[in-house]
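User: Can you predict the 3D structure of Carbohydrate kinase? Sequence below.
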Amino acid sequence: MFAAADLGATSGRVILGRFGPDRLDLTEAHRFPNIPVRLPGGLHWDVLALHQGVLDGLRAAARAGGVTSVGIDGWAVDYGLLDADGRLLGNPHHYRDERTEQAAEQVFAVVPREELYRITGLQHLPFTTVFQLASARGSAQLDTARTLLLVPDLMVHWLTGTVGAEATNASTTGLFDATTRTWSAGLADRLGIRPGLLPPLRLPGEPAGTLLPHVAAYTGLPPSTPVTTVASHDTASAVAAVPARGPDFAYVSCGTWSLAGLELDAPVLTEAARTAGFTNELGTDGTVRFLRNIMGLWLLTETLGTRAARGLPHALGPLLDEAARARPFAAVIDPDAPEFLPPGDMPARIAAFCERTGQTPPESPGSLVRTILEALALAHARTVRRAAELTGRDVAVVHLVGGGSRNALLCQLTADAAGLPVVAGPGEATAIGSLLIQARAHGAVGDDRSALRRLVAATQPLRRYEPGGDRRAWAAAAARTGQHDP
Ligand code: LFR
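Assistant: Sure. Here are the predicted structure tokens for Carbohydrate kinase:
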């Protein structure tokens, strides 16, 4: 049995996976909330609570019979800083904190955006690590720091005492060279980042240490339990678990974010890819995740959160039923409009977006939810099409994985918008990706990446949605969106 600790933006979980010939059985050992905290210094992650959640999950794993190995993944970009004694300096910032607004321009003044893209291959997101570091420049915290650890690497450090930077997640920092697949010492130097701050890289499958004595004592797992490096960027793990049966697929990893794109062998670092907003993040086995970030279910969860705070009905099921019955295309919004990024009153922001673009805001909660899901479906479809155009690849099927795959309306709308079949599931693709990498490293499954995908396809519940709907209406909506290349 293997344990995957998967940290998401709203909750963390520890999932146990048991492999057998043509078998992969999953059980959820523990789930815990991830509640960001606003302090005078901005919006932060409660990393101690996350560590405690991981420990409690591992304790549950020990009670369930123990594990061959543990792996940890989480969202990208964010980091903790350690001092010379290896202690965490303050609480890591949340990528939705507003402090990075001006920072990108400071970076571009030193490394022009076109050059930065040619080196790192990253789409422009205001919160990328390199911009967060620029906004922290000259702070006492950064001046004192000796080691930067991305959040999953920090969790591994607290389990094992070891220090390393997992490569798929390092590739999201804006300090990683997409071609050489190493830290870009040149960029760090030009941007005044001490080279020693960035720890040695580790690849998925490599050992990351064993449990510290106090971790073993608390969890009840033996101190010799290995922690295995997985694709610690959650999206990289999710892509590894896409249940594709052939090469001509696109994926949408849909949770808080929708990450839509293709798996490639080499980065595409052209101006066309840059202006279309595509990123080249590292995947497992040296693959490249050529994708775009789409705002994702964040729009929906923030909408539900706003309604809950006002004492309004906010249960997802009934709202989705209403949305399914609501009139199509009451309003068409761009889900990636920058004002949707920070936490806050999403219904009011969507209404303001509609008014600004000469549209009547959705009039009922069901219509609002439908507007969000149609906007995501349009963005999924448009991103998949652009990715195919930019790479000359054929796409015959879209695999929608992650929590969003449980949203039948979103899956059907995505199929309709793309004019392609959507295969939905698995919902826990990220944890499955982590389990597969661990199982492979410990010899419980074979090496071949496509065979791992076939195992997921053969063992996990999947649902297929055929494209339907009114093609002309979708085309008209796409023309109305204002969904733009950034
Ligand atoms: C998804 C994800 C995305 C990344 C965003 C912020 O959970 O990891 O891939 O762009 O979170 O880190």
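The CA atoms of residues 421 and 466 lie 5 Å apart. Residues 75-77, 95, 233-235, 255-257, 259, 293 surround beta-L-fructofuranose (CB under 6 Å).
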